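Render this sequence as a predicted structure.
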Amino acid sequence: MKFLDSKVHGYIDYASAVLFLIMPSVFKMQTETVQSMVFYIFAVFTLFLALQTDYEPGLYKIFPFAAHLVVDFLSGLFLLVSPWIFNFSGTVFLPHLMAGILVMTTSLITVSEPQTI
């Protein structure tokens, strides 16, 4: 069931970018490690995607919102499996797993058409 509208999804995107940026500190990861870099890259990517998306909080409105949701799902899946792809699951995997699940879930519960004003 899809109930999250595009405006709220956009605000979640911006908040997620900030959260991805601080996740390594919150979980006491060393900043120069792969597990931290995954979150830093996702922070920049999430902010870039949010700014480019054609929805209410988007600034440039270039990227279609339906495509944004597909990219969200796939990037969440990548985030979820990144500890095993980059071979750091023995050190830490839960923050990446949980963040990936949340990103994927958010994409699945969002209505794919932005509201018209």
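Summary. The chain is about 65% helix and 0% strand. The chain has a mean pLDDT of 95.
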